[in-house]
Every structure is written in structure tokens, then in C-alpha cells.
Amino acid sequence: MIQALIPAVSGILDKFIEDKDQRAKLAHDLATMAERHAQEQILAQIEVLKADAKGNWFQASWRPLIGWICGLSLGINYMVSPIAAGFGVVIPQADMSVMMPLLFGMLGIAGMRSYDKSKKTDTK
Q: Per-domain residue ranges for the chain?
């Protein structure tokens, strides 16, 4: 959101500040402020994840557990149940409208690793 405001604020600076150097410095300060804010948010999220991982086995393994539950439910609903129905076996299906947003959110978080790889960012 801050990134979207930078061009508008820069346009306002053009109208009210006559000195080109001063205007350029303020525009640069605005742009770097937005970048710093984004970096601070990312670093704060990393600290939360580090604290999450330091807990005991039960605390540290809840994300993989949820991932496995969602993945297995997805497999059962869309693979096992239709195949079993062909043989006359009825397997009740889970309500995927609840699990899909959770699964997509987890995959979106995991998708950042793919983004890092595409940008050749070393995260080790």
C-alpha cells in the first residue's frame, strides 16, 4: 500500500517544493522508507517463525501436521473416494470449503521458497 502512495506523494512534492535537489532527496527518502518498512515486517515475521520453531516437538510440528491432514483430506476427497465409489464403497468426504483456504495459505507460504529459488536467493 505504501508503494502505491509514493508516486502520488512525489507528484505533490513537485508542486510544493521548487528546489530540484530537495525534491529528489525527499522522494528518495520516501522510497527508502517504504523499503525499510517492508524489510522490518519481513524480519518481524522471521522472528515469529524462529520462536515458533524453538518450542517442543508438539509446538514445532503443528504446521507439518496440518499440512499432512489437509493433503490427505484432499487426496481422499478427490482420488480415493471417487475410485472407491466405482466399486460401490462409499467414503464420506470432508468439507473442503474449510480446509482449502488453510491449505492454500500454507502453500502460499511455502511458495516463497520457490520465489527465492527463481531469484537465486541463498537462504542458508
A: 1-55, 61-124
